[in-house]
Amino acid sequence: MIEIGKLKLDSDFNYRVIREEENDIDLYIDINYRCVDINIGKSDIFESRIQFPYVRSILLRINKESSLMTVHLMRDIDLFSAFANFEVNYLNSIFSIKNVQEKVIISKNK
Description:
By secondary structure, this protein is mainly β. It contains no helices and nine strands.
């Protein structure tokens, strides 16, 4: 587990910092074209998860002073190849990116 600002990240994958400024940092996580399941629990719209097939990498854009980050799902190695993004509030939780039988599970645990 690593801590960056207020983020606690638990991941099975290697990451690299591709941009860092005073309060912002971008982490690039190569997941090698795996399917990504985002466990969101029950909501007004979704029952349990959202799935994205064939994702090359995940980019986490983190503000070290906030508890919000933007997660970008990338189709290719190019930073402009994001096809989906969403914000996560990770306050008082652990953000998890795990490899489970060649599928990537993204979840937030308290």
